[in-house]
From TrEMBL:
EC number(s) given by UniProt: 2.7.7.19
Protein name: polynucleotide adenylyltransferase
Species for this entry: Mucor plumbeus
One record GO biological process: RNA 3'-end processing
Residues annotated as transmembrane: 397-423, 453-473
Cofactor(s) essential for the protein: Mn(2+); Mg(2+)
Entry keywords, A to Z: Magnesium, Membrane, Metal-binding, Transferase, Transmembrane, Transmembrane helix
Highest taxon of the lineage: Eukaryota
Family the entry assigns: Belongs to the DNA polymerase type-B-like family.
Pfam families: Cornichon (PF03311), MTPAP-like_central (PF22600), PAP_assoc (PF03828)
Keyword flag Transmembrane helix: yes
Length: 475
């Protein structure tokens, strides 16, 4: 019986190939390439215009086609083996499989391809009318038109109005003239399209952050969803070998919407023909990456001296950034905003919050470690045991040969039954542990192991005794 393993990377490649066939029949969006499917939560590119106002929103309300794609793919026998693997799979691959199951159920296509069935709508209103620049005025206008105002946040870096549309049953965040958010969305969409592991990894970490109440920068003192996304992107940029590049530093023609912010261009490379497959040389599984992400920010990242930089594609020092002095030197967590590099996305989390974040990362690492220890996986179990089988047999044969050559007949005869047992096992091809039989024969293997342990312990004391007698006799 051959065991089946789940390789998330190759699974996603299979899905991506199918999606590319579907995309050839779809319309291309404003960015020159289409989303894997046609529905969205977190973003859209619908634009309403009049003489002075443009409304660009980051969500659409089309029906989700992703599940239909998975259903059609399930008709393939090869993919069925991946979606419904045997239980004999390594822990990290099992974790990858469970992540993909959650990802399959929860995801919705979006402008940045990171929508879920719980995402709200982000809307940017571009207008030259000064009346809408006051968030409270905008809230009053919306309320008069039947929308429910949940909250206004006028003092945020980007002031927003949080509303609820009772007709469409949608939650929305509205801001005015924050056009840079559109470039943020396009940048994230480009990164997501480069490697098939990016999207599910970001989504599962966003889901984890929401469940642990770590994604409320405005009032919760933690980190925004955008900040979590930047952390994941930088994490993938700093793997070895890297899975994602740094788009801003790749030579490219400046985009039409390029603006200079503090002397830096906002334009970045979004030519997917040059970018897709960048991380192909990295073979880490989705489950392994998730565990490594938590481990990095629990134990490896130096919060006191390091800065996360998506724009540079690496970790910077506070000294390099000039954040070792001034207000930023007092921040407990430093995450550079990719477009406005003077802005610290981690400024919403104070020292107490960052200590809490580290505890959550440590909790996740411990949880995964406990799960891996408790995860009875016959393939892993047999592989770990089998690496000691031949060395043990070889050492046993070597000891027997030494006794035979030196004429120590008593210890040679003592070792003869064990040597005969090992030879019989090898000739019958029963010396290796079989993952398909291990649980049925486990009690037999335990008895044999304890007998061998007792035999080797007695031999040790016997050899020690004979050595002492020989030393005394030689004196």
């Amino acid at each position: 019986m051959n065991s089946t393993t789940v390789n998330n990377y190759h699974y996603s490649q299979h899905v991506q190939q199918h999606q590319q066939q579907v995309e050839e029949e779809e319309e291309y969006d404003d960015f020159g390439y289409s989303s894997p499917s046609s529905s969205a939560f977190e973003s859209c590119s619908s634009v309403l215009t009049d003489d002075s106002t443009v409304v660009s929103c980051t969500s659409s309300i089309k029906e989700d086609a992703l599940m239909e794609e998975y259903v059609s793919l399930n008709e393939s026998q090869d993919l069925n083996c991946l979606l419904y693997p045997s239980l004999t799979i390594p822990f990290h691959e099992s974790l990858s499989y469970n992540i993909l199951k959650l990802y399959q159920v929860r995801t919705k296509s979006s402008q940045n391809n990171l929508g879920t069935n719980q995402s709200d709508v982000d809307i940017c209103i571009s207008t030259s009318w000064n009346g809408l620049r006051c968030i409270k005025t905008l809230a009053n206008v919306l309320r008069k038109n039947g929308l429910q105002i949940v909250r206004t946040i006028p003092r945020a870096k980007v002031p927003i109005v949080k509303i609820w549309d009772p007709v469409l049953q949608l939650a929305c965040d509205l801001n005015v003239n924050n056009l840079l958010a559109l470039q943020n969305t396009r940048m994230i969409k480009t990164y997501v399209a480069i490697d098939p592991r990016v999207r599910p990894l970001i989504l599962i970490i966003k889901h984890w952050a929401k469940q642990r109440q770590l994604n409320d920068a405005a009032s919760g003192g933690t980190l925004s969803t955008y900040t979590w996304t930047c952390m994941v992107i930088n994490f993938l940029q700093t793997r070895y070998p890297p899975i994602l590049p740094n788009l801003h530093e790749i030579p490219h023609t400046l985009s039409n919407d390029n603006v200079q912010i503090n002397g830096m261009n906002s334009s970045f490379c979004d030519d997917l023909s040059k970018l897709v497959g960048f991380g192909r040389s990295n073979h880490e599984s989705l489950g392994g990456l998730l565990y490594a992400f938590f481990r990095k920010f629990a134990y490896e990242f130096d919060y006191a001296t390091q800065v996360i930089s998506v724009r540079s594609g690496k970790l910077l020092s506070r000294y390099e950034k000039g954040w070792n002095k001034g207000i930023e030197s007092k921040r407990a967590f430093c995450i550079e905003e990719p477009f406005d590099i003077r802005r610290n996305l981690g400024n919403s989390a104070d020292e107490t919050s960052v200590k809490g974040l580290k505890l959550e990362f440590e909790r996740a690492v411990i949880m995964f470690s406990d799960l891996e220890c408790d995860y009875i996986n016959p393939i892993d179990l047999c592989n770990k045991l089998n690496q000691f089988v031949l060395p043990e047999m070889g050492l046993q044969a070597f000891v027997f040969f030494i006794f035979l050559v030196t004429g120590h007949w008593v210890p040679m005869l003592i070792n003869l039954p064990v040597l005969a047992l090992n030879i019989r096992k090898v000739m019958n091809r029963q010396h290796m542990y079989d993952a398909t039989e291990i649980f049925r024969t486990l009690s037999k293997h335990k008895k044999e192991s304890f007998l061998k342990l007792g035999f080797y312990a007695l031999c040790f004391f016997f050899y020690l005794y004979k050595m002492i007698v020989s030393l005394i006799a030689s004196d």
